[in-house]
């Protein structure tokens, strides 16, 4: 719930929707209808409740309905506000002007003709007084009939509120008697005609301190006292002079008007004080949340602040750490008695908490579910999902939260949910920043190592190729040295290629390449590594040429052949085949090995990934990652799977679509 003064004075062009929220049944349906209308208009929307002096006489059910409606509006993305005003119509007009609203959604419940004659229709008056607003009227359900006992109790409470307390009457009548004694003493000093003005003092005090009804009753008593003690014939209620009758009537009228004005000022002052106290609590709580950076700190602050504001035991339950079950295992609590033990939750209380968390709805005492629990649990939700549950109870066995304080509780929980979501987002951003820094360092290391090692390795390979052996043993040793140097050279080349892929600096030159020749060149380059592996090729002579970068495509083929030679059967055949599929072409490299575990077909292409029991056990984990990177750079698709011909082993496929084939006209 926000302060309406926080709405910016200027707004972007377009429709802006405003929904007036009341305590009547059907307020939730009104909120949902406004949300659908806002989505249809693609317009921002606000939900406002106008607080009038009548708001202080809401029943528990009406307060609960109002709080639930405002909470639902906040969850659905509306800007929620509560605005104190003398009347609902004045508050709506002022808020609509501040929010630059162009359309208003308001509910109209079925009222008796007597009620409409007494109070009028807000809808009709809004249409007449605000012609620039498009007013949408949503019919609401009729107020339910209360049980006789509850209706009688409500009437009794209403009468008590209307007619004031006995203390107020005693104080007012005491002031009247004091003014009468003072006037008698003044009259002894001479004939003073303005003594009646003294009686305005107790009227003003009574109306200001105790309300309108007490002020009117005091005005009547003051008129009788003035007539009895100061208008001839004194000590009787008889008035001989007609001018004195007019004086008494004027005094009574002034007393009534003064009582009304003073009572209105008092009601507005109390309403403004309550609104200021609630806004101050929300602002202070929001300011406190801005400095919180961890979930543990948020849990402690949330329990302590809400427990202190609502004077009750507080507990916050949240799921365990990531990877654990969704059970509510993390807990923070607070009790008003600093020396008291932390509040304990029974089995029924935990059941209510879990129900509230799973269904994203209140549970426990004062709700509609598991009411036998002493705790009232509300979900702490953000983004349409419950992040935890907050519970309240009282040691004196009273209701956990008064109905008029329920909107404050829900507003505090909404702010806590936003703070919790912010903390989680900050943690994710920190992890993302660390991952980016690790990637940057890894790229710098790969680039540096590859560039620094490539030149000396080229020199070593060239020197070994130029040397001539004198005997068979020396020839074997030199061949082994050349093989290891070439393997290290391929590894360094892979590092440099991976650095180019990750930096986005890879730029290929597409040209027609004969597939049969490309496969033959790749096999020739890997002849030393292939050793005793028999190689089977099945590339037809009439296969179309492919449009690829020759160097990148050659690297893809050599890496796939190297992968098959290293991780397949040491003496098993390697098959390189190409066949037409639909309008495209597929090139496959197959081996006879343990194959790929189920579910690892995509993960096998990730950088530095080695999969146990598969074609990627051991090694650096760069070869297939480079194949995927080079293939994507050329616009090709590459995939991995196990052989489907009943023979164990892996099969890697490069797919060429029709755009990557060069068909020659016959």
List keywords for this structure.
666 residues; alpha/beta; elongated; five-stranded parallel sheet
Protein model, in words:
With 666 residues, the chain is of the alpha/beta class. It is 51% helix and 15% strand. The protein has a 5-stranded parallel sheet with strand order 3-2-1-4-5, with helices on both faces. The radius of gyration is 42 Å and the shape is elongated. It starts with 16 loop residues before the first strand and ends with a strand. Mean pLDDT is 78; it is low at 1-12, 145-164 and 613-619.
Provide a concise account of the structure shown:
By secondary structure, this protein is α/β, with parallel strands linked by helices.
Strand order of the largest sheet: 3-2-1-4-5
End-to-end Cα distance, whole Å, is 76 Å
Q: What would you call the shape?
A: elongated
Number of strands: 18
Percent in helix: 40-55%
Total helical segments: 18
Measured on Cα atoms, how large is the radius of gyration?
42 Å
Structural class: alpha/beta
Low-pLDDT segments, ≥5 res: 1-12, 145-164, 613-619
Mean model confidence by pLDDT: 78
Main pleated-sheet profile: 5 strands, parallel
Topology of helices and strands:
Elements: E1 17-20, H1 27-41, E2 45-51, H2 60-75, E3 79-84, H3 88-98, E4 103-108, H4 113-119, H5 122-129, E5 134-139, H6 148-163, H7 166-189, H8 200-210, H9 212-230, H10 242-290, H11 295-310, E6 313-319, E7 328-334, H12 347-359, E8 363-364, E9 376-382, E10 385-393, H13 406-466, H14 472-503, E11 511-513, H15 515-525, H16 527-530, E12 535-538, E13 545-548, H17 550-567, E14 574-581, E15 584-590, H18 623-633, E16 637-642, E17 650-656, E18 661-662
Parallel strand pairs: 1-2, 1-4, 2-3, 4-5, 12-14
Antiparallel strand pairs: 6-7, 6-10, 8-9, 9-10, 11-13, 13-18, 14-15, 15-17, 16-17
Helix pairs in contact: 1-2, 2-13, 7-8, 7-9, 8-9, 8-10, 9-10, 10-11, 10-13, 11-13, 13-14, 14-18, 15-17, 17-18
